[in-house]
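To the structural biology subgroup,

Please find below the input and predicted structure for HNH nuclease domain-containing protein, which we are adding to the shared reference set this quarter. The sequence is reproduced verbatim from the submission form. If anyone notices a discrepancy with their own records, reply to this email rather than editing the shared folder directly, so we keep one authoritative version.
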Amino acid sequence: LWARGYCGFKYIFTETSNENESKVTLQFRWMPRTKKRLVQEIDISGTGHGSDSRQLIDELNLFHDQGNPPPVSCEGALRHLTRSGKPLPSGYLIHINMQTDETKGFKEAIDIQWACILFAAFSGAAGNPELPSRQNPDDKAMQWIQSQAR
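Predicted structure (tokenized):
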């Protein structure tokens, strides 16, 4: 589920128990499946009816109004239950005990993951394994990323 962008983990806080042990709290979030916007230029400045930004806001509001539901399983293959057998709700808090000296790196990794998951959801890539081709000469963002990597 996580690898396909259906859900993400948002860092909430770290509670240090003692010098060596800490508890990190994450929030589990189901991600919205929005209209596919990969490799499309969108106008985020327009706010009128039918504008790109208005459509995205409407999609996000609908997801929220529906209670941030988990993805609909095509074949019943997705299992999203808590240990007690209840459906895993968006907003569920997860507590992870770890060594205090590991918390900073863990938080940074979770923050990066959260940013990537948000980007995937807002661009319509959540649940979609298809990524834009790196060979597309019209993809200015991919060209810039590749030039920075050289």
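Summary notes: The chain has a mean pLDDT of 78. Residues 7-149 form one domain.

Regards,
Lab coordination
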